[in-house]
DNA sequence: GTTAGCAATCGAGACGTTGGAGTGCTAACA
DNA sequence: TGTTAGCACTCCAACGTCTCGATTGCTAAC
């Protein structure tokens, strides 16, 4: 059997209606709202076909139809192709650069949650490809060394490490200069064991300390890959959707949002998947697919953001499978665009 | 009427039983479990008295009794006086110093949540009374200044600020030395406008920059007072208790745990209240009282922790009003003691 | 002061009934 | 051949009724 134009209209009407109401849709409803001038009986025949083809499901004999996963997928793909996604002008997002990155991410994710009424998450940018600007050392206590690492984009990381020797002020300064001579301008992949050895050679006896410092630098950058900070907002929005409000599902979802570990995996998986993807980077994962295989009734919409300077991260919305994909996709696209713009403007201004 | 010994036993038995089961307790249950050899009829008479005195309540005519707020308060106060609170040796808490403060706090709060089966929170230590070790300045970009503030206890804060002039490397160094000469060893309250002026005078033309830097230092320390970081764990534990699991209450509580703003207020209020309190600092707030006036069915147990070096913060557990106070109080006391010990040992070792 | 016994009360859960929404099928119609 | 009206059938959700068990307060006896 073939999915002709009329069937497509009916299918889309069913899904749209279901997304709005959350209730199974009957033939009379379609007959009234599809715009096709057909009686409910005719619609029934078509629906029967659509069911046979696997796009819709009947929860029980005397109920209307709801979309199957295949139906959802069809719907989502079809709106992803509509490039004229209505960009929500009304909710003009107030994206403005905030100096503190953390603040900015928190603000963004809150915005997204409030705007969509779903749960939102954002990952801190990945630093692996980011270049080191410089490193500063100082000694806050005996046998301790404080490392301040400044990366491109003015990302700052710090860590206190323990070392085996006591250094005087001047030695610390010299070591700082030595190390910076080698590593500033490099990114993670440029720091090879060979490089480390050649710095150590020049360290006039402080080899162990140098090694500890560089290892720690690598750690700080690397740690950010698998422990990238994740900010969330609006987890309690899921209570607005009855199909997720039962204790079991809600509890799972919310603890995922509290203990961010599983979200980290999710972000990791998403950024792996979307590495070589379409331009906008927008992706929709339906419950059970890929990164959210253990959240049967949820969907995840993700996008990649970029804050000038090559700082890239992932932003996402989790909601019920019957979420308003059009709105979410529109909002996210808008957000990404405005972020991009804000950072471009900023760059030109500088 | 007077609260004689027998009434006390009966009251405590009622409350203990209710804490365990969450169901109203009837006279027969008490007759069996109180250890007093009395028939249910006698108990009924006593219960009638206790109700008249306001310690217990009857939800409806044909149900057992549940504790009133007055009853809870009596019970909690009485176990707070029992100094022989069973210290839960079995769950020997694995408190060990972790270098990174943040990690350590996260670990602690998780421990507490898992151990008690309630929702737990911990505030980062307050820095207002903490002394400044030193300040480091550097220039990550034109007209930007990176401030690294190292406080007693090796707490590190950083911030990038914008300034109006371009400085060369040497000037930055000189300013750093100048500022440190004045402020290292001081705590927040020692930084007066007068002090700032006298530094500015010596700054040979960089007065504005100095002012911006010091303001920012004050900000960094102060920001920590009202935006002290708060870590939480086990928010979803509340789903284990039916009286909090309805959508409304759960949603309120969980969003408080997600958007930490209201928790910050709570911590603030608790540390104000407990400033001049008994030694252990353990406090129990029943739903509706003080800091949790808008959480009718919850209770909050708090304590003050100290990590050597005068870093003080608040740790707390939120659960249903019918929480196992004995266990929670025991666990928290134990935790505080072990923290104390771990840091003392560490200090001696140094 | 304590206890046994009894009627009264009330909520939780089981059960049955009803009504509405929806379907599939058939037969008639264009 | 595609569309439509009509009808019997199905099923869930909502509602009301009923019963059962837990518990109480009261009274009278110990």
* Overall residue-averaged pLDDT value of chain A: 87
CATH architecture of the largest domain in chain A: 2-Layer Sandwich
CATH topology of the largest domain in chain A: Beta-Lactamase
Given as residue ranges, the uncertain stretches of chain A (5+ residues, pLDDT < 50) are none
How many helices of chain A does DSSP assign? 11
> Which protein chains are joined by the largest interface, and how many residues does each one contribute?
A-B, 34 and 34 residues
Portion in helices of chain A: 40-55%
- Per CATH, the class of the largest domain in chain A reads Alpha Beta
- Report Rg of chain A: 26 Å
| Number of domains as seen in the coordinates of chain A | 3
Largest sheet of chain A: 5 strands, antiparallel
Q: Please, what is the oligomeric state?
A: homodimer
Q: How far is it from the N-terminal to the C-terminal residue of chain A, by CA?
A: 60 Å
Task: Please trace the helix and strand order of chain A, writing H or E for each element.
Answer: HHHEEHHEEEEHHHEHHEEEH
| Shape type of chain A | elongated
Strand order of the largest sheet of chain A: 7-3-10-9-8
> How big a fraction of the residues of chain A is strand?
15-25%
């Amino acid at each position: 059997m073939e999915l002709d134009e009329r069937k497509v209209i009916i299918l889309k009407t069913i899904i749209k209606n279901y997304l709005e109401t959350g209730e199974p849709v009957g033939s009379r409803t379609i007959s009234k709202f599809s715009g096709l001038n057909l009686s409910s009986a005719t619609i029934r025949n078509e629906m029967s076909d659509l069911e046979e083809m696997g796009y819709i499901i009947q929860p029980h004999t005397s109920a209307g139809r709801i979309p199957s996963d295949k139906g959802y997928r069809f719907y989502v793909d079809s709106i992803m192709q509509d490039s004229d996604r209505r960009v929500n002008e009304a909710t003009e997002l107030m994206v403005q650069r905030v100096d503190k990155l953390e603040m900015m991410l928190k603000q963004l994710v809150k915005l997204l949650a409030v705007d969509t009424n779903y749960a939102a998450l954002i990952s801190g940018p990945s630093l692996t490809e980011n270049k080191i600007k410089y490193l500063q050392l100082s000694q806050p206590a005996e046998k301790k060394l404080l490392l301040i690492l400044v990366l491109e984009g003015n990302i700052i990381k710090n860590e206190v490490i323990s070392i085996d020797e006591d250094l005087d002020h001047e030695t610390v300064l010299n070591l700082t200069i030595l190390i910076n001579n080698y590593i500033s301008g490099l990114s993670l992949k440029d720091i090879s064991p060979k490089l480390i050895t050649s710095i150590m050679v020049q360290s006039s006896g402080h080899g162990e300390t140098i090694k500890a410092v560089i290892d720690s630098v690598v750690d700080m950058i690397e740690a950010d890959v698998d422990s990238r900070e994740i900010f969330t907002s609006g987890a309690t929005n899921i209570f607005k959707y009855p199909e997720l409000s039962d204790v079991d599902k809600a509890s799972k979802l919310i603890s995922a949002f509290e203990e961010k570990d599983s979200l980290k995996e999710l972000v990791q998986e998403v950024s792996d998947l979307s590495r070589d993807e379409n331009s906008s980077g927008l992706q929709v994962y339906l419950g059970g697919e890929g990164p959210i295989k253990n959240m049967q009734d949820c969907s995840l919409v993700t996008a990649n953001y970029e804050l000038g300077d090559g700082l890239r991260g992932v932003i996402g919305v989790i909601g019920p499978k019957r979420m308003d994909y059009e709105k979410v996709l529109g909002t996210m696209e808008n957000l990404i665009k405005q972020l991009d713009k804000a950072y471009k403007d900023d760059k030109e201004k500088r």
